[in-house]
């Protein structure tokens, strides 16, 4: 950029006039790896190769996908800028969650963990770098962030606080190096329920400590009272009384009184009646054969809860027109023929998911109401559940294809929504779609009317994973209802929209995508079954 402002009459470079310096307001994302020097010391060549791969396969694609620009990389970090604060924070969340998935199969001391800071500020832009306090604040936020966390400034928080399905924990005003004013800092919690769980945990600890203090005080008072002589007032004795009591003869010790053991009340005896103690007859000694049989008998096993399979609905299949002209990703509209298949009436619930978690086949235990749909599920998590369900039942369960999902969601209709061309309130669990208030979790499954095929929540509630890899449109899509598995499968298709999306997302034709291995708080799934 400086070349542009060179004076033709001078051999010296001159900085451009201040007024001509390109500036813009941007969301700046700064990230670096925790303990990079230690990782290089453990395995220099391996760490270098892994860092290059992460930059190529994760950092750069994530920034591009979220409409940002990678400004520069260092050996252990990067800086990027975004027009949208929402996209900047989304990018940070995707990177952190993807890194968590990559690290789970490695020893702890080989983990590559990023710290990420995001700030909104005015920056000076050059071809290969950016400058300004806005950049400095983003770097300082990254410096104080915990490994695997995203920290944002107050400016970013004000822009995104009602636009992402996240929780935010205020860390107060922080004084950071080389920045005059304190910076308001927030920690991003990708699970919106995490903040309330943190608050409840703190409240529980405070209540416990307060209760423990009160019990200790009450116990001390009781101990003091019990040490007083019988009938004496619990007042502290005077000094003269103490001196005289030291000369007095010791008090006589009262004789022990015989205490009669209490007898259990039998029959209709009153409390004053004396009942003879019941006589217990000694049992006959076990024979050697009985003892040997008892030793050889297998130990008793606790009863195993019966497996609860998803409730399935058989569909006869048929031909329908897939797609719409509402969005470029839904074009072109094309004819698809669907073979008979079964699909679950409801999204998979928390109760159903936790059967898999209890069997140690799914990677986490879901929280929330048992009859609510499970959330925060990646595509890989959904495949874990399907693999377990096949092994547990011997049935060919799977994820539905994208074409099967849309066919089932339409319920035999070709209108914008399955109930007609216009949206109607009270038909789906979505943002501003009825009387149901926004919550940390979607409402329980089956709370709204089923579509004509008898399927519930095929629009709203939770986003639902399907088998297909993501493609930006339907050019070349299969016409036989099979999943589209060719191409780059780092992202997979999600359908339905969620309780945090508006009514546009609950259309049967609406489609979106997300990273294959990354969990997100609005993502769930349902299963299909081949006949």
Radius of gyration based on Cα positions: 34 Å
Secondary-structure element series: EHHEEHEEHEHEEHHHEEEEHHEHEEEEE
How many beta-strand segments? 18
Number of discrete helical segments: 11
- What's the assembly state of these chains? single chain
What sort of overall outline do the alpha carbons produce when their principal axes are compared?
globular
Low-confidence stretches: 1-11, 194-199, 232-283
Taking all residues together, what is the mean pLDDT?
81
Q: What kind of sheet is the major sheet?
A: 8 strands, mixed
Helical content class = 25-40%
Walk me through what this model shows.
- This protein is of the alpha+beta class.
- Helix content is 29%, strand content 18%.
- The protein contains eleven helices and 18 strands.
- The protein has helices spanning 36-42, 44-65, 85-103, 133-144, 154-160, 193-226, 239-247, 288-296, 350-358, 379-393, 402-410, and strands at residues 23-33, 68-73, 77-82, 114-125, 130-131, 150-153, 167-174, 183-189, 312-315, 318-322, 334-338, 341-344, 397-398, 463-469, 491-495, 512-515, 523-525, 528-529.
- α2 (44-65) runs antiparallel to α3 (85-103).
- It is globular, with a radius of gyration of 34 Å.
- The chain starts with 22 loop residues before the first strand and ends with a strand.
List the helices and strands and how they pair.
Blueprint: E1 23-33, H1 36-42, H2 44-65, E2 68-73, E3 77-82, H3 85-103, E4 114-125, E5 130-131, H4 133-144, E6 150-153, H5 154-160, E7 167-174, E8 183-189, H6 193-226, H7 239-247, H8 288-296, E9 312-315, E10 318-322, E11 334-338, E12 341-344, H9 350-358, H10 379-393, E13 397-398, H11 402-410, E14 463-469, E15 491-495, E16 512-515, E17 523-525, E18 528-529
Parallel strand pairs: 4-6, 14-17
Antiparallel strand pairs: 1-3, 1-4, 2-3, 4-5, 6-8, 7-8, 9-12, 10-11, 12-18, 13-18, 14-15, 15-16
Helix pairs in contact: 1-2, 2-3
């Amino acid at each position: 950029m400086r070349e542009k402002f060179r004076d033709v009459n001078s051999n010296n470079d001159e900085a451009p006039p201040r007024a001509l310096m390109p500036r813009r307001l941007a969301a700046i994302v700064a990230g670096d790896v925790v303990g990079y020097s230690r990782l290089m010391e453990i395995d220099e060549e391996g760490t270098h190769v892994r860092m290059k791969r992460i930059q190529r396969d994760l950092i750069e694609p994530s920034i591009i996908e979220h409409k940002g620009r990678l400004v520069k990389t260092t050996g252990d970090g990067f800086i990027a800028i975004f027009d949208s604060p929402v996209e900047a924070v989304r990018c940070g969340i995707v990177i952190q969650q993807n890194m968590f998935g990559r690290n789970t199969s490695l020893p702890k001391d080989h983990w590559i963990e990023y710290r990420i800071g995001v700030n909104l500020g005015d920056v000076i832009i050059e071809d290969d770098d950016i400058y300004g306090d806005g950049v400095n604040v983003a770097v300082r936020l990254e410096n104080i962030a915990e490994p695997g966390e995203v920290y944002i400034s107050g400016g970013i928080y004000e822009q995104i606080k009602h636009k992402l399905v996240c929780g935010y924990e205020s860390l107060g005003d922080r004084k950071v190096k080389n920045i005059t004013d304190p910076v308001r800092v927030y920690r991003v919690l990708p699970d919106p329920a995490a903040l309330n769980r943190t608050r409840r945990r703190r409240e529980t600890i405070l209540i416990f400590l307060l209760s423990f203090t009160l019990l200790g005080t009450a116990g001390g008072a009781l101990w003091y009272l019990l040490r007083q002589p019988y009938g004496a007032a619990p007042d502290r004795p005077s000094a003269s009384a103490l001196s005289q009591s030291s000369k007095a003869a010791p008090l006589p010790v009262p004789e022990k009184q015989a205490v009669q053991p209490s007898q259990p009340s039998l029959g209709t005896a009153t409390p004053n009646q004396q009942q003879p103690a019941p006589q217990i007859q000694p049992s006959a000694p076990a024979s050697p054969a009985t003892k040997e049989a008892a030793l050889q008998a297998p130990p008793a096993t606790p009863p195993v809860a019966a497996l609860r399979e998803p409730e399935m609905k058989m569909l006869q299949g048929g031909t329908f027109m897939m797609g719409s002209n509402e969005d470029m990703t839904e074009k072109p509209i094309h004819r698809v023929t669907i073979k008979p298949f079964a699909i679950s009436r409801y999204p998979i619930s928390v109760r159903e998911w936790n059967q898999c978690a209890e069997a140690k086949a799914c990677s986490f235990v879901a929280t929330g109401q048992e009859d609510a749909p499970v959330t925060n599920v990646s595509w890989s998590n959904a495949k874990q559940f399907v693999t377990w369900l096949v092994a547990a039942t011997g049935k060919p369960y799977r994820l539905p294809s994208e074409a099967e999902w849309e066919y089932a969601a339409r319920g035999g209709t070709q209108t914008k929504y399955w109930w007609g061309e216009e949206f109607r309130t009270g038909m789906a669990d979505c943002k501003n779609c009825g009387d149901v208030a926004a919550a940390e979790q979607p409402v329980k499954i089956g709370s709204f009317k089923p579509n004509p095929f008898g399927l519930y929540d095929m629009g709203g509630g939770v986003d639902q994973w399907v088998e297909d890899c993501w493609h930006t449109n339907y050019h070349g899509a299969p016409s036989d209802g099979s999943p589209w598995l060719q191409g780059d499968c780092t992202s997979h298709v999600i359908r339905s929209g969620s309780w945090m999306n508006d009514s546009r997302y609950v259309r049967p034709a609406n489609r979106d995508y997300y990273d294959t291995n990354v969990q997100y708080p609005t993502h769930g799934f349902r299963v299909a079954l081949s006949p």
